[in-house]
Specification:
Elements: E1 12-18, E2 24-30, E3 37-43, E4 47-49, E5 55-57, H1 60-70, H2 78-94, E6 99-101, H3 102-116, H4 118-128, H5 134-163
Parallel strand pairs: 4-6
Antiparallel strand pairs: 1-2, 2-3, 4-5
Amino acid sequence: MHCPFCRHTDSRVVDSRTSDDGSSIRRRRQCPSCHRRFTTVETASLSVVKRSGATEPFSREKIANGVRKACQGRPVSEDDLALLAQKVEETLRSAGSAEIDAYEIGLAILGPLRELDEVAYLRFASVYQAFDSLDDFEAAITVLRAEREQQGAADAAAGASADEPAR
């Protein structure tokens, strides 16, 4: 690590701390030449393997941009998109691999997007999963409705058990 002040080629680590979310390490360093201190933040790199075989660094911004198109005209804020991109990155990092296939990123987007906005989810899924006909849309909508009904039944059961008096 070069000193940002005098460009000396070495530095000494004075203090190391893990970030709150555990995804990075903050190191306080001191230059042995000019004795000035500076901070570095270290994160594990995450690479995306594209269909062509080329690799590029993972970018939350690319996730947000791709989903933004599906969310046009929907009640989804920029903060919602940033949070979705963060969730996707956390999911991918938890897999423990340094290289992620682009297809896996699309799969990781679908779950959080479905929770955020069902219409945006259908738009994204129709392109990502290459829907060819109305039947594909109907099948996806049927799955969404079944999951919503199942969740509603589970919520009702949980609410009924919460209403029972304690014995």
